[in-house]
Amino acid sequence: MGNGTGFGAVLRAPVEGRTWREFGYLLVGLPLSTVYFSLAIAGVSVGAGLLVTFLGIPVLAGLLAMCRGFGHLERARVRHLLRVDIAAPARIRARKSGPLAAMGALLKSGSAWRHVLYSVIHFPWAVFGFCLALTFWSYGWGFLLYPLWFWVFPTYTGQSGLIVFQNDDYSFVLDSPLAIVLTSVLGLAITLATPWVIRALTTVDRVLVAGLLGASRLDHRVSELESDRGVVVDTAAADLRRIERDLHDGAQARLAALAMDLGLAKQKLAEDPQAAARMVDEAHGEVKVALQELRDLARGIHPAVLTDRGLDAALSSVAARCAVPVRVAVDLPARPAEAIEGIAYFVVSELLRNVSKHAGAGARGASVDVWKSGERLLIQVGDDGRGGAGLSEGAGLAGLAERLDAVDGVLVVDSPAGAGTVVTAEMPWRGRGR
């Protein structure tokens, strides 16, 4: 089955749209690369020669801007003909406004100079790719279709067929039926090989464009940090909304009712002291409940035990409130940074809350392990429940993964159905004072 599919792919390759697009890419690449090369060499030569005067700076800056334009065109060609989307490098931003600042930013841009390098080194490769692709293409199809056009030689040239070799004593002409058939077979072999030769050539082009005209690792890192910053902002806004909702629906509503009860008790104090005393006693109980809700809310934001005694004590406190027995083991040589410590506490709290939520579905116990490995802080929370959890199962684990990703952390879920769940979180270790 696999062999048949592979042989069919070989037979289809010469007439596939991909092959024609890539062949067109190589054909168009030579004239474009000739223009790039000529202008880049001329610009570098003139700009370097004029550096003894101020005129060399704007000439080189103009060359860099022009080559970035070439890069935009090349990325578009790769996107439309090779079906590969290459991310553009970051925009060049000058720290100050004005033409001098803009030229300085261009001259100091590594990505702009990579565009110049591409314009220079791509030219010889474009010549090689153009010649090799065109040779394979023309000879392959020419030999394959030779039985259909060999008649032009006796009709218009006075020759019996295509002359392959000729000297004073001997000539080899493709005019016999066997020679014509063998020529067509050779053309078929070349035609079938041509798409793979073209794909090998365009693979090099993809590497050149991605390496010299695409975004650098620094650009990718900046993009990731901007994305992570958005996640952090969204998470902080969601936490503020949750705190506001908890205050409004919990302690605030309870305190408002308490104020009304005390007002009624005040009115009844003169006419019915016993009823007023009962109302004050009930209000005293409501005050205790409100205080407990505020303590729980404050503990959820950043518990005092975490600040005072660290992760070991804080996680033991969280484990004590879980619906199933939890074993806690924290092996850390020192305390991490407050931000990392707070995220670790939040991750364990959320995971143990999930364990409590599913305790009725078979979970009888859980474990929490925290340790340091190299420059990473690792957390593993496991339970013996029904399993089947995943990052796509809901917003809970997905939200934890996003929060960890914002600090270069990862979340891995291992939860086979019927065999419990093990969630491993990893984040950078950042010591206090760093």
Fraction in helix: 55-70%
- Rg estimate, integer Å: 37 Å
Indicate the proportion of strand residues. 5-15%
- Characterize the biggest β-sheet: 5 strands, mixed
Order of helices and strands: HHHHHHHEEHHHHHEHEEHEE
Backbone shape: elongated
Would you tell me the structural class of the helices and strands?
A: alpha+beta
- Mean pLDDT across the residues is 81
Strand order of the largest sheet: 3-4-5-7-6
Q: How many separate domains make up the residues?
A: 3
Chain oligomer state: single chain
Roughly how many Å apart are the termini?
60 Å
Highlighted features:
about 425 residues; alpha+beta; Single alpha-helices involved in coiled-coils or other helix-helix interfaces; Heat Shock Protein 90; 3 domains; five-stranded mixed beta sheet; two-stranded antiparallel ribbon; 14 helices; 7 strands; about 10% strand
